[in-house]
Amino acid sequence: MIGMRKQHTKALMGKAIIKYVLLGCLLVLVLIGCTNKDKIPGDVLPREEMEKVMWDMVQADRFSSQFLERDSIARKDIKTENLKLYEKVFQVHKITKEEFVHSFQFYLSRPDINKVLFDTMAARANRRRADVYTNPEMAQ
């Protein structure tokens, strides 16, 4: 009888241990699931700042294609001129090329955040285009 009681007690203890292990695993899963997936690491430019930098880089490319490619002197070394424009964008935003590249790679690895970034830029371009059509002086 005592032997059966010991076996029964061991079985109950085993079940209790399994319950605690399962409860611990569930707790870990809940904590992992509740982490902020939209959190951007500290060494990456925040989305709003990255949007501004990329907007200015698009504007630099636009300037290059509209003016520098038509200039016979600048056309000789258009790539160098583009790099100079990018450096000016980095200076304006007080970042380095390396910081931009690192941040850009992060956003490329996160399509969910990247989509928001590019959608916001597209909306900004559409607003700007509409403003220019309604008020041509803004194009200057």
From TrEMBL:
Q: Which InterPro entries match?
A: DUF4296
Q: Which residues form the DUF4296 domain?
A: 41-128
Q: What's this protein's name?
A: DUF4296 domain-containing protein
Q: What species is this protein from?
A: Paraflavitalea soli
